[in-house]
């Protein structure tokens, strides 16, 4: 399967498509506030599956988690309105796919692995455990028979894009040989400000580092320009159709969460865009 890269600038207009979902409680998994964690499953197609990781911000202190929250740390009642694969429209290629949707309720871009106490308030940054437990449970109980699918797409936006990059490798272990595999990371935040990482506690940075290194992404926590470290990640997914979207979400994420202005972000994009296109053609 040929490895390729796609770079796009898009504006999304979205309405949730009317498909039904089943809530599946995952034993042992929990949201940031300690409540039970559930995933959403929609079975429409025996051969095609899309796995989506919900996006959102992160939190790292009492202020960001409880007082001025930029992320959910409680159960998600329904699928987020910014879910592109569930958007209506005849041009959506995923309308008739079966779907596995991972909500985001741990404040850790799906990759945390510790319990934090912020000024007396407990947060379970349990994202990594939730994803691993869910995949194992769904496979063992045959709720989703991964090996039966011939075409699988892993998708995520914002925090979900980071999760897609990390967990597509894990999902691959559940698939049959010869499965057509596509990974789409929409605005994964690869150009943060110079001091972006400073706000995170050491335990959180340790979780990030372990998750990133699992896909050969060796981040320098003194440098917010993550994109320059991506070449080894492409090697991990050389058997996948692999696309990264640079869209309006990318600008918003960079400005709000990445501590970098849209104009600063635009200056950085050509630096790695040209380099990555060369990789895609090799």
Describe the protein in words.
The model is unreliable at about 1-15 (pLDDT under 50). This protein is an alpha/beta fold. It has helices at about 60-65, 125-140, 160-170, 200-215, 230-235, 250-255, 260-280, and strands spanning about 20-30, 35-40, 50-55, 100, 115-120, 120-125, 150-155, 180-185, 240-245. It is globular, with a radius of gyration of 18 Å. The protein contains seven helices and nine strands. It is about 30% helix and about 20% strand.
Present the secondary structure layout:
Layout: E1 22-30, E2 36-42, E3 48-53, H1 62-67, E4 98-102, E5 114-118, E6 121-125, H2 127-140, E7 151-157, H3 159-172, E8 180-186, H4 202-213, H5 231-236, E9 241-245, H6 248-256, H7 262-281
Parallel strand pairs: 3-4, 3-7, 7-8, 8-9
Antiparallel strand pairs: 1-2, 2-4, 5-6
SSE run: EEEHEEEHEHEHHEHH
Arrangement of strands in the largest sheet? 1-2-4-3-7-8-9
Q: Report the radius of gyration as a whole number of Å.
A: 18 Å
Low-confidence stretches: 1-15
SS-derived structural category:
alpha/beta
Helix content: 25-40%
Q: Overall 3D geometry? A: globular
Largest beta-sheet characterization: 7 strands, mixed
**How much of the sequence is in beta strands?**
15-25%
Query: Counting H and I runs of at least 4 residues, what is the number of helices?
Result: 7
Q: Averaging pLDDT over every residue, what do you get?
A: 87
Distance between the termini: 13 Å
Extended strand count:
9
